[in-house]
Design goal:
With 200 residues, the chain is α/β, with parallel strands linked by helices. The chain folds into two domains: 132 residues, Rossmann fold (3-Layer(aba) Sandwich); 27 residues, no CATH class. It has four helices and five strands; from the N terminus they run ααβαβαβββ. The protein is extended, with a radius of gyration of 24 Å. This is Penicillin-binding protein activator LpoB. Keywords: Signal.
Amino acid sequence: MGIGSIVLLASLVIMGCAPSTVYVDTADDRGEAVMALDYRDFESAAGEMVDGMLGSRALENPQGGRYVLVVSRIVNDTMQRIDTDQLVRKIRSDLLNSGRVVVTTAVGLDGPEDEMNMAVRQLRESGEFNQDTVEGEGQLIAPDLSLSGTIRQRDIQMDNRQQQVEYYFELAITDLTTGLAIWEDQEVIVKRGSNRAPTW
C-alpha cells in the first residue's frame, strides 16, 4: 500500500470518527452550560432588563408619543472578546416592539451608526438628483434618552477545585435634557464549575 493510500485511509478514519454537526433549537436549548457567556446569557439578561425598563414606567412619555433613544457606550469589562452589540440589539429590538421608544441611528459617540443618514444629505448640491426628493435641513430628530452600561466579570476560586464566575450586566438610561439617570438596573448571572474550565 502506497503512502497516498495510507494518508487517504487515515483521513477517512478520522472523518468517520468525527461527531456530526446538529442544529440547536435556541427556543429549547438544554445543552451543557459553559463558564463563558453564551447566547443564552445575553437573551436572559436582555429579557430581564427590558422587563425592568418597561415595568418601571420610565419609558412612558408624559407628553405622549415615543421617546427617541440613542445607544451610548456599552463597555466590555470581562476577559472575553464579546461584541456588546449582541446585548444591545436584543434590547433595542424588544424596546422598539414595545412601542415606547424609537432608536436613532443618526448619532453616536463614534459618528452615526448608519452613515447613510449623512450621506444622503450630501446630495443637496448634486445636479444629478431631483432636489425635491433630497432630505432637507432640520429633519433629523435629536435623541431624548441615552442607553449606556457595562458588562463586568468576577472570578472566584473555591476550595473544592471549582470556580465561581459572576457576570454583571449593568445598564442605565439617562434623560439627555437633564443629564439625570431615570432608570438603572443590574442583572447578575452566576456560574460554578471546574476551575479548569475556561472563562474566555
